[in-house]
Design goal:
This protein has about 60 residues and is an alpha+beta fold. It is about 25% helix and about 25% strand. The chain has 2 helices and 2 strands; from the N terminus they run ββαα. Strands 1-2 form a two-stranded antiparallel ribbon. A hairpin with a 5-residue loop joins strand 1 and strand 2. It starts with a strand and ends in a 5-residue tail after the last helix.
Length: about 60
């Protein structure tokens, strides 16, 4: 995968949808995870969360 997952869990929302929670180690690992999550996704996501994950590129 290219990054280290520290912890993950799944939950079910009140409406019955699955929620996946993933913790990764290191701020430079977030863009790698974001690329996997948002790959080939054009709708049905919260744009500011995607932007926050992707802005941790090599500063």
């Amino acid at each position: 995968m290219g990054f280290r997952i520290i912890y993950y869990r799944t939950e079910t929302s009140q409406s019955g949808n699955l929620i996946y929670r993933v913790w990764v180690k290191g701020k430079f690992e977030l863009p790698k995870l974001a690329n996997i999550i948002y790959n080939k996704v054009s709708t049905n996501f919260i744009s500011y969360k995607k932007e926050n994950m992707l802005k941790q590129t090599k500063d």
